[in-house]
Amino acid sequence: MSLLTNTLNAISGQDQSWRDQAQNRLDQLVMPHWALGRLMDLALDLAGMTRSLTPPVTRKAIITMAGDHGVAAEGVSKFPQEVTPQMVGNFINGGAGINALAKQVGARVIVVDMGVAADLSAMVASGKLIDKKIGFGTNNIAQGPAMTREQAIAALEAGIEVVNHYADDIDLFGTGDMGIANTTPSTAIVAALTNTPVAEVTGRGTGLDDDQLKLKITVVKKALEINNPDPTDGLDVLAKVGGFEIGGIAGVILGAAARRKPVLIDGLISTAGALIAYTLKPEIKDYLIASHRSVEQGHRIMHQHLGCEPLLNLNLRLGEGTGAALAMNIVEAASRVLTDIATFSEAQVASADK
After folding, report:
1. CA 27, CA 33: separation in Å to the nearest integer?
2. Helical (H) or strand (E) element with 43
3. How far apart are CA 333 and CA 312, in angstroms?
4. Sequence-separated (6 or more) residues with CB below 8 Å from residue 213
5. What is the pLDDT of residues 32-90, one digit of tens each?
6. Nearest CA-CA partner of 308 in 335, 277, 338
7. Is 289 helix (H, G, I), strand (E, B) or coil?
8. DSSP states along 290-342
9. CB 288 within 8 A of CB 274
10. What's the pLDDT tens digit per position in 195-237?
11. pLDDT confidence of 350, banded at 50, 70, 90?
């Protein structure tokens, strides 16, 4: 059996018995009932995910997947494609937004070349960049499929392989992305999988003006019309209108779920990967933590489709894994609620009247 098939077969939902044990403890904590609100909801989820009343979340990593997109030729981004390899260099040298925010929460930044349209062999040779390159960028989705179905499977399996490599040393994964024009395939994915009109899910990406936004909407509509992705088949959607890094992110989510590890999803592109993973295995939802709601209007539709309520809403639109990094302290705090706060009996405090 293939790595993808084995991984899908290994995924099951949260364990209700551990949730019940966590619920019992949380109900007795020395505070008004459920006074820490969503932190306690998250603590309950962490117990169900990890099968533990002491959920391990202290060893953290952001996996930032990089890839280019042929659709950039349509003028859907304000930045040229050469920015992708330049920013990958910035990531591995520690100078990007994700590096600053990951450092603040004590998380590693793991950078992966999934399909950058440049030769990054020198960066790979430095030991700072993981080479999982499927190709030198996807094809232009406004003219035909982004990739073959075989390449889509390879992208998913690359993400799974990265998780499997680090799983013994990492408790909490976060997803990140880099790729000029990658909001365009992400928008096509959300439109295809949620059956939402393109205009309702298309945002300004890197800061498009009104005319550029109209062009982007036209390009996404054209990509969907030409490729006609099957919304019941996540692999078909990924292959026809996706991206190599989006497939890699979906693979990270599948790999983390198979390992029963929580995974924080970042913004629009990461959540597009989550949609692909969800289509392939709905049980992955039990391991997803939505870190934030970005300003991209399609992000709300994605969260609604997945049934996820984001932890933060800070008007972020950078990607890279920055929102996931910011939310990692909240996840660790939720674990501490379960492990560090005494119950009424432990603290010898009188409880409320029944």
Report:
1. 6
2. helix 37-50
3. 14
4. 202, 204
5. 999 999 999 999 999 999 999 999 999 999 999 999 999 999 999 999 999 999 999 99
6. 277
7. strand
8. E-B--SSTHHHHHHHHHT---SB-S-----TTHHHHHHHHHHHHHHHHHHHSP
9. yes
10. 999 999 998 887 889 889 999 999 999 999 999 999 999 999 9
11. confident
Helices (H), 195-321: 198-201, 210-227, 234-241, 244-258, 268-280, 298-306
CB atoms within 10 A of CB 194: 17
pTM over 0.70: yes
Neighbours of 32 (CB within 10 A): 8
Q: In what order do the strands lie in the sheet with 60-67?
A: 130-131, 107-115, 60-67, 172-178, 263-265, 288-290
Tell me which of 157, 161, 296, 320 is the catalytic residue.
320
Instruction: Extract the tokens encoding 11.
Output: 């995924």
Helix (H, G, I), strand (E, B) or coil at 198: helix
Residues with Cβ within 8 Å of residue 319, at least 6 apart in sequence: 176, 177, 178, 182, 266, 267, 268, 269, 270
Q: Which two tokens stand for residue 347?
A: 């603290």
Tokens encoding 253: 């989510």
> What residues does 67 pair with on adjacent strands?
115
CA dist 226 and 178 (Å) reads: 26
Is residue 253 within 8 A of residue 277, CB to CB? The reply is: yes
- Return all residues near 230 (Cβ < 8 A) that are at least 6 apart: 236, 237
- Please give the domain boundaries of the chain with CATH numbers for all domains: 3-55+338-347 (1.10.1610.10), 60-330 (3.40.50.10210)
Instruction: Give the whole-angstrom CA distance, residue 182 versus residue 70.
Output: 10
Q: Write out the DSSP string of 77-135.
A: -SS-TTHHHHHHHHHHTT-SHHHHHHHHHTEEEEEEEEE-SS--HHHHHTTSSEE---S
Residue pointed to by tokens 């990958």? 88
Active site residue 320: yes
